[in-house]
Amino acid sequence: MNKKLFVLICSLLWCVLAMAQPIDILIKGGRVIDPKNHLDGVMDIGIKDGKISRVAANIPASEAFRVVDATGKLVVPGLIDIHGHHFFGTEENRYLRNSFTALPPDGFTFRAGVTTVVDAGSPGWRNFDTYKAQTIDHSQTRVLAFLNIVGAGMAGGPIEQDLLDMDPRLTAMEAKANSKYIVGIKLAHFSGHNWEPAMKAAQAGRDAGIPVMIDFGGATPTLPLDSLLLDVLRPGDIMTHCFAHVSGRDAIVDDQRKLRDCVWEAQKKGIIFDVGHGGGSFLWDQAVPAFEQGFHPNTISTDLHTGSMNGGMKDMTNVMSKMLVLGMSLPDVIEASTWKPAQVIQRPELGNLDVGAEADIAILSVEKGNFGYVDTKGWKYPGKEKLVAEVTFRAGKIVWDLNGMSSPTWEK
pTM for the complete prediction? Predict the structure, then answer.
């Protein structure tokens, strides 16, 4: 038989076999945790045409073209990293705007179980079109963004101090014009005894109907944290870097290791406290006493960029592991990394395993052993558990497989 004809016949037979099966890929036997749908138990998940087609116990393997055995693993919605920086480019001295410190998503997301990233303010209204063309349009990862209140974006130094470039009207207009991608407004790094930047960001958020994320800047003397949380921010707005303690900023835990009363009040009010680990914004001195007093973050995120990924932060699963060893339950850690951020950014179609939803799924293992977790000052905290991303599905396609769980075993 002609070789080309043989290959064609095999390809056609392969396609016919795949079409004959009601399920393209069956994830079988894993512990499914889906906070939105209150699922936590051993179940199977079927994927067909890139969508979740079935979630049930004991789906027959014979109904699937391909089976992934997830026995002993966690099966969860694709993780949502609500704070990253992905406006990568080649401009000198522009920090996280079209420059060398930001990272292309696909090289750093799937290997950590992340299928959706939210860029935390790298672009502003002046350069969002460039960001979309360079990052969003060339990423398999779903990329959303908080738009910086500074029109020039997160370019560092004096550029981020320019009050005249903080235009609520134009920022809100750009956000509404790109509502498919822009899910919030960001203020970051402003240094000054002045609430004006925060008020401008809040105004843009109100005008666009989206939340505001605040990276609480510095001031001498410090601006009171209670004013930010209780007067400036609205329910649904986000305080990121919640376990940071930097000069010129009130920390959530005071010098007597007591969680400030305004933090409890704000969280009850509906303010979202986000981890935003980063390269300088997560300290055990803050996180440990906060957890001891019963405070847990609402959302878990990385603040991913070149200055954090090779330090104590590492990746999303490492930050999640820190929350786990501090005392958050595993279901709560999963919720704070999936369904809760989806709600915060007003994208309820994400962060869940609904039948009919796009099949963004992570298979995770919980490794047992003696591990060390490092904060941004270099202090180590011990832990007995570590989350590891084994397999990541983006829109039903396997985009990461650490140990070949989805692959057939080689035979000579």
Answer: 0.94
